[in-house]
Hints:
By secondary structure, the protein is an alpha+beta fold. The chain has five helices and five strands, in the order ββαβββαααα. Helix 2 crosses helix 3 and helix 2 packs across helix 5.
Amino acid sequence: MKIALVLNGRNTEWEALPGATLLAVLRDEGLTAAKRGCETGDCGACTVLLDGQPVNSCVVAAARAHGRQVTTLEGLAGDPLLKRLQEALVEHAGIQCGYCTPGMLVSLLHLMRESRATGAQPDDHAIREALSGNLCRCTGYVKPVAAAAAVAAALSTIPASGTEAP
Length: 166
């Protein structure tokens, strides 16, 4: 089946088998930041943005992307907020094996963008809630939460990407 969508800001057409997941097609297209983990929507390693909202791409049918906007971590490269989140995770030792990191970054970036749009500063509870769909066996979440809190505290000083929704 033919699927037309906006992928990472570009109009794109895919050929996908019926029943193919969004994750499978993304990886077939060479976009490998979203990881194959549980394939049941529980681990968050495959998190991408679908129309600006985080979803587990392993449980989204590729056909559901037709006519919609899909953004992967690769499509967020160059975003100053993403760069700051990455730096903070390194500074706070919030990364170990790195398998879950792309999904965590997508979830945290969504939280920070939403917070910037509403003028709210996310607290530890909001950060933990944003990460609740991302399983990490290595870090125990304390350090990733601390990293995100540091970014949240400086949110007003980080330039917008130009692609954020108003």
